[in-house]
Amino acid sequence: MTKNKRFDWILLIILFSYFMILLDNSIIFTGTVKIAQELHLTQQTLSWVSSAYSLTFGGFLLLGGRAGDLFGRRRVFEIGLVIFGVGSLIVGLAVNAPMIIAARAFQGIGSAILAPTTLAILMDTYTGPARVRAIAYYGAMAGIGASVSLVIGGVFASLLTWRVGFFINVPISIWMFYLAVRHLSKDTGQSGQLDWIGTLTSLVGMSALVYSIVGTWEKVPALILAVVMLTIFIVQEHRTTQPIMPLRLFADRERIGAYLGRFLYLGSMLGFWFITPQLMQNQLGFSALMAGVAFFPLTIVNFIVALQVARLTTKWGNGGLLVVGIGLTLIGMFWLSFFTPATGYWLGIALPMVVIGIGQGLALSPFTAAGVAHTQGADAGAASGVVNVMHQIGGSVGLSILVAVQSMAHNQVIGFQHAILTGAVLLLIALVAAIGLIVPGERK
Predict the structure, then answer these.
(1) How confident is the model over 210-226, as a mean pLDDT?
(2) H/E segment holding residue 101
(3) Where is the Major facilitator superfamily (MFS) profile domain (predicted)?
């Protein structure tokens, strides 16, 4: 087997697996109306179709990253594929609310295993320019996958059935499992033990945190539990010799900036992906299909720009590229906040989406690279887990903030403007973090 052939197959496995996760994280947004109608779900119950996935995804992420370090990346990756594939099948077969919510929670466990493991496999496999290129593709997939998922979700919900969006994961999971067995190196992991106190406190703490975010003010006890458990978790990680999340990961200025920036950036983006399709359907009369297709300006530009990231990183540096990317996303979001039905789709949504797409294409890969910068092999899984924690929790927090801001207005358009403007503020803080932490940390 040639080196180039090995590179191609492993990258294919990594990107396709990550795409599956992103697909099911976003496909819900354009299919919610159809799901609610078919399964007779209330708005509150419907929210749990998404929240159940986020809850287990966020709760099990650190465990998923550490498990790959200890028990071998390939073995853990294959387990994640099985869980995700089975969960997808049950979601597609769901006939009532408890069944689809439980299946989505099970699916989230699979995603929590796959997300950090795929990035850790990437870090183990590639070095030098090949790693820069692979991370660029991986980071680009975060934006492209989420955007394409909205289109795919709209197509399936309108022309076929929302269930196809989940059934399609089953053959993909089987194919990925076959490719993993054939092309991924068999590794035995590292010697050591799982930090059970850290595992349990992080699992309960992260799950309670997500639950308090996706819930209402009645979930204050969950927030208190999250604070207590995560405090115990941090103390435990400081004391133990084999932490599930080494605190030394936060000793690096560049990584801290990447974690904070990714948290804020994804918070803004997930809110944007969630409320914009609803606005287009309610204010512009778009169908679910058209709302998905309406994201093509962002998706196409994002894809084209993302392919140039590896070359641009060499030219501008990771930090410089990130600053430009966040800045353009900020400009696009600020422009979008002026939308009114009178401005229409092309001027009010499509053109700002083009600017957002360029910025997103430039920003997400550098965020990923900075999040795993200067890590050794022993910490690759843990660092990958933290990157995905910030991605998932940041998205949940930002979505909750933007939806809360939108709901304060009596008019949907005004609520949308205020929510998008709030997203722009989150991006501004992310830009400050990039300039103040990531760029100086990269140059030291």
Answers:
(1) 73
(2) helix 97-125
(3) 10-444
Q: pTM for this structure?
A: 0.81
For residue 319, the domain's CATH number is: 1.20.1250.20
Same domain, 238 and 324: no
Cα dist. 356→131, 315, 373, 405 in Å? 26, 22, 26, 21
Same domain, 399 and 425: yes
Interhelix angle 380-407/253-283, rounded to 10 degrees, is: 40
**Do 88 and 150 sit in the same domain of this protein?**
yes
Q: Are residues 113 and 163 in the same domain?
A: yes
For the cut 60, the answer to whether the pLDDT of residue 176 exceeds it is yes
Residues 181, 229, single domain; the answer is: no
Q: Burial, 124: exposed, middle or buried (Cβ in 10 Å; 0-12, 13-18, 19+)?
A: middle
Structure confidence by residue, pLDDT tens digits, 268-324: 998 898 888 878 888 888 877 787 788 888 888 888 888 788 788 888 888 899 999
Cβ neighbours of residue 298 closer than 8 Å, sequence gap 6 or more: 147, 353, 354, 356, 357, 360
CB-based burial, 340-369: b 16+ in 10 Å, e otherwise: eeeeebeebbebbbbbbbbbbbbbbbbbbb
Same domain, 135 and 216: no
Are 169 and 178 in contact by the 8 Å Cβ rule? The answer is no
Q: How many CB atoms lie within 10 A of CB 189?
A: 16
Domain housing 133: 3-194+244-443
Number of Cβ atoms within 10 Å of the Cβ of 135: 27
Pair (323, 435) in one structural domain: yes
Number of domains present in the structure of the chain: 2
The answer to whether 138 touches 14, Cβ cutoff 8 Å, is yes
Domain match, 261 and 127 both: yes
